[in-house]
């Protein structure tokens, strides 16, 4: 994104701007920006048994009251293998608390 003199942001390949871009509030765009989509599909079986879709994650955690905290911890700190197969979840410290406040409820809201 690049900012114009008017203060409006436009998509470009490169550019500098004194004004930070607006925060991403759309969960799908945020999942793409934070590279969640690199490993997780939104629906279906996911890319592999070890890389579950958000739909499968929601099926597993939606009725578990501490699910939001568990998922937040797994996104930020990663996890060892064994939850969905042999591939561990890498840590994603670039995901801020405000990002997770958008992403986690959206993940848990995926239909069954």
Automatic annotation (TrEMBL):
Q: What positions does the entry give for heme c binding?
A: 36, 40, 89
Q: Which domain of life is it from?
A: Bacteria
Q: Which Gene3D superfamilies match?
A: Cytochrome c-like domain
In this chain the Cytochrome c domain maps to: 22-111
* InterPro entries referenced in this protein's UniProt entry, alphabetically: Cyt_c-like_dom (IPR009056), Cyt_c-like_dom_sf (IPR036909), Cyt_c_ID (IPR002324)
Keyword tags: Electron transport, Heme, Iron, Metal-binding, Transport
Any one GO MF annotation of this record? electron transfer activity
> Is this entry keyworded Transport?
yes
Q: PTM per UniProt? A: Binds 1 heme c group covalently per subunit.
Question: Under what name is this protein listed?
Answer: Cytochrome c class I
* Species whose genome carries this gene: Hylemonella gracilis ATCC 19624
